[in-house]
Design goal:
This protein is α+β, with helices and mostly antiparallel strands. 25% of the residues lie in helices and 40% in strands. The strands form two sheets. Strands 1, 2, 3, 4, 5, 6, 7, 8, 9, 10, 11, 14 and 15 form a 13-stranded mixed β-sheet that branches. α3 crosses α4.
Length: 240
């Protein structure tokens, strides 16, 4: 009887040890997942936080916390079974940041990445690589098809400039990250800046009579201001 109890206790201890080993193995696998798809690491951070810093309004990061991210296209090929990463995007540096299982955050080399998406619940944001001037940047894809509408989120940093002259005070006493959306209409991989003005936007389609006619017809019956939503719906109408 005692021998049986000893054997049972030994088996339970063995299972616990195996479970612990399995957890460590899974942590190690998760940590090395950042190397999947042949990515090379450029930088690592410890204790990275995306929240606003003290005395600072705004942040250079796309999200205030980690988001789930999948790769969609790499080396000009669809990624069929991407690792699900916890990630964020540094808009100021145009760097993708990935969380490793070792408690560190990494910025991998992304020149070979064409598309990825972030997801939280049912909300999904798609980002595509696009050459804008001399830079290869990740921009948010708002509409896709023959014509693509994308949005670059530009970041600028303004330092505190508060001045106190007794009776007269001016400026602000905090640093600030400011965001400015810049839209592009893309056809055949060539981006053209698309201002949030109806007339300027329609002029981008002058060389395509069918697209121009479709966009004018759609906007003539569209109720609402010419904003981002209007541009998205117009491009979707053109691509039908």
């Amino acid at each position: 009887m005692k021998q049986t109890i000893v054997l049972i206790l030994w088996a339970l201890s063995w299972n616990v040890l195996q479970a612990q080993d399995s957890m460590e193995v899974m942590k190690a696998i998760r940590a090395t997942n950042i190397l999947d798809n042949g990515w090379n690491l450029r930088t690592s951070y410890i204790g990275l936080t995306f929240r606003d810093k003290e005395n600072t309004v705004g942040s250079p990061y796309l999200y205030p916390e980690w988001r789930r991210m999948w790769l969609d296209s790499m080396d000009n090929k669809p990624v069929k079974h991407s690792v699900v990463y916890e990630a964020n995007l540094d808009l100021e540096k145009n760097e993708l940041i990935i969380k490793g299982g070792d408690g560190k955050a990494y910025t991998p080399e992304t020149r070979q990445v064409q598309m990825f998406h972030f997801q939280r619940g049912d909300t999904q944001h798609i980002f595509v690589g696009l050459r804008l001037g001399d830079s290869y940047k990740f921009v948010q894809e708002l509409a896709a098809g023959k014509y693509c509408l994308v949005k670059e989120i530009k970041i600028s940093f303004a330092r505190a400039d508060f001045v106190d002259k007794g009776m007269i005070q001016s400026g602000k006493n905090y640093d600030e990250y400011r965001r400015e959306p810049v839209y592009y209409l893309v056809k055949d991989g060539i981006p053209e800046k698309a201002p949030l003005r109806k007339k300027s936007f329609l002029s981008l389609l002058d060389k395509d009579p069918q697209a121009a006619a479709t966009s004018r017809k759609f906007l003539s019956s569209y109720n609402g201001p010419f904003d981002e939503t209007a541009m998205v719906k117009t491009v979707e109408a053109i691509n039908k």
